Amino acid sequence: MRESNVWAPLPLMAVAAPLMEAGFDIKIVDGRVIHPHIPDILEAARGALYVGLSVMTGLQIRDAVAISRAVKQSYPDIPVIWGGYHASMLPEQTLAEPYVDIIIRGQGQIAATELARRLAGTEDGSLEGIPGLCYKQDGKPVIGAYPALVDLDQFPPTPYDIIDTEKYMVNDVGTRTMKYFSSQGCPFGCGFCAETSMYGRGWKPFSAERVVDDLENLVKKYGVNAIDFADTNFFVSKKRVRAICEGLIERKLNLKWAADVRTKQFIEFPGDLQQLVRDAGCRRLLLGAESGSQEALEYIGKQTTVEDTFHVARICNRLGITARFTTMFGFPGEPQKDIDATMKMIEGIKAINENFEVHGFFFAPYPGAPMFDEAVRLGFAPPPYTEAWEDFDLTELHTPWVDPVYKEKVDMIIDFYMPFASPGPELMEKMNAGGPKALAYKGMHQLAAWRVRKRDFRAPLEWRLKKWRAGH
Ligand code: B12
Ligand code: SF4
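Above: inputs. Below: predicted complex with iron/sulfur cluster.
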């Protein structure tokens, strides 16, 4: 499926770096920017040692299955390898599919290179002993353990020259924003997050000097003016953050950037470092507020408080950094109470800065997340085969303990009325554009603000109209 505003395929580029250094010829065919993509993939796969796919749980599975089947049909002898989160978490289930031959679990750079060497016949051809490798032997799965994260500086620079960078230039925090990763892993262990299993709470960064060199190269070679860091946790080391920020300023790269951070981490930065982060170009932080209910925060092991969320919002407001918060609904327990508590939290955030965004999602038990087993105990039925995971995401309900009425309430209040009640920059622009549409937006804003203030969502005709229009 062709998409617009597509981020660079960093997982494949990361794996390509050591493979290229070892002398292998790599072709990345990205189904998100080429349509139709299967003919190009089949052409690129001709004579390949293997075809590797990067697959997350959810929508990507649909394309991944179609591609894998097409490759197997055209070239039955070329191994199809799945890497990335989905297959790493569910190796037995994935290997049971006839269209997947091998899985590389966890960090893929070393295993992918070692596998290519073995298949090329330059080394022993057996598949034994490759870190994280899972494969079929006599029809039975052989499951390799997750490899420990290795130091990233041993790998050559992420090869941006093997993609058409113009296709991945996104108008986001800057007009020419490029995705870049500077570390892998996260030392925390939030209950809903699969990161813990994938990288065992390890964290490995590129050195600050290398990050600044890479970013300078992106600016000079490709005219990048902003960076969206893909790191799950860019801010783990204060020393490294300081050195990166100083480097960006010294080299006058004039980059704007965005990154993810834990609320507590940023609060615990000394004031001068928070300021340095802003001075070095940080314009947006993505923060997991998760819930306005302290009980829910404890339940998911977030190790933060609701007050931390307000605290970090005040810091961002003072610094002039846009804070974008994510929240989750539908944890086991008393979800109804969580809606009210999270509404109050959103109002508190908006009172600090009306432009700060808050996005609502539903708790989905991702395989590998610490809360997965408990969710199964509470009645969640995991999809029994690979393709059945296609529709699994954070916007729909997959858990039996929350009912559809609750979901509709969250969709209606959090995603519809609250954004109208406190409009962000995009909606403000529409409201101020003039003409009948702008008037309708203004009317909707006033009505939504009244409903939210009064907590009165009876007879939600506007919401029903919106749903009706969405269905037509
Ligand atoms: C950028 C990003 C996106 C981008 C697109 C990704 C892209 N590059 O095009 C967008 C915004 C589209 C996105 C969407 C979603 N994302 Co996302 N995303 C990320 C993010 C922040 C960075 C990915 C990245 O570039 N990492 C850097 C690379 C170097 O690391 P890596 O991905 O781990 O890759 C390594 C290994 O996995 C392995 N590997 C990966 N692919 C392959 C392939 C081969 C052949 C081999 C050998 C090895 C290999 O080797 C790589 C190098 O070590 C990650 C978090 C993270 N930091 O990884 C979440 C993350 C991958 N996303 C996640 C989720 C949940 C989603 C959504 C489902 C959220 C939603 N809205 O519901 C959607 C799903 C989209 C879909 N299913 O199609 C989860 C994945 C959980 C899971 N079980 O799949 C993550 C881990 C975030 C988290 N901690 O929860 N995402
Ligand atoms: S949610 Fe964020 S902080 Fe928590 S474990 Fe996952 S990546 Fe780390």
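The CA atoms of residues 287 and 325 lie 5 Å apart.
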